[in-house]
Amino acid sequence: KSVLEDNLPFLEFPGSIVYSYEASDCSFLSEDISMRLSDGDVVGFDMEWPPIYKPGKRSRVAVIQLCVSESKCYLFHISSMSVFPQGLKMLLENKSIKKAGVGIEGDQWKLLRDFDVKLESFVELTDVANEKLKCAETWSLNGLVKHVLGKQLLKDKSIRCSNWSNFPLTEDQKLYAATDAYAGLIIYQKLGNLGDTVQVFALNKAEE
To answer: Is the peptide bond before 168 cis (omega within 30 degrees of 0)?
Structure first.
């Protein structure tokens, strides 16, 4: 636990947010992302869904976030679309583009269960951090932001636990969602610049 966590500045995505809520538009944007990225490129990845407090009930993924650079982040509001966009499915299943996040294996299984989409080449930042920092921590995204970037995430419960299925997303929701994906991208980049280059584990336990 970082002793610096009090009074740390908040991390906030500084670029432009592209908000897509129609399947055809989402597919077009996803194909454009795929064409602009090279083999081995990394995007920051995260997902949001509404909390449900009833036993036996679960909500589906509502928003998928992809941060491709410090200047652009895409928010795909899946719950507002009539079908899961084919272009986004192809992007998420593209093995040549790495998707970095925390707890991303759980996201993989949720995507598979909710939409039969298989997230490929995902990078668990906890594993990268432990390899680079020579430790064995169970990191949260906010923990990594504090330790690696010297900042903190604004974890406002009224936003974090809001109904992510509601259309349209509020400006606060958009910034919150974009910042989480942005954090994944820049933590990956920062860890990659630490010391000797180490292998990044694009873990896919389903294939083991």
So the answer is: yes
Strands 122-124 and 98-101 come out as parallel
Q: Which CATH class is domain 16-201?
A: alpha beta
pLDDT value at 7 more than 90: no
Structure tokens at 15: 């670029």
pLDDT tens digits, one per residue of 74-131 = 999 999 999 999 999 999 999 999 999 999 999 999 999 999 999 999 999 999 999 9
Q: Give pTM, 2 decimals.
A: 0.89
Q: Is 20 helix (H, G, I), strand (E, B) or coil?
A: strand
Separation between Cα atoms, residue 104 and residue 183, nearest integer Å: 14
DSSP state string for 44-75: EEEEE-----STT--PPP-EEEEEEETTEEEE
The two tokens of residue 84 are 């899961």
Indicate the helix (H) or strand (E) that contains 188: helix 171-192
Distance CA 84, CA 65 (A): 14
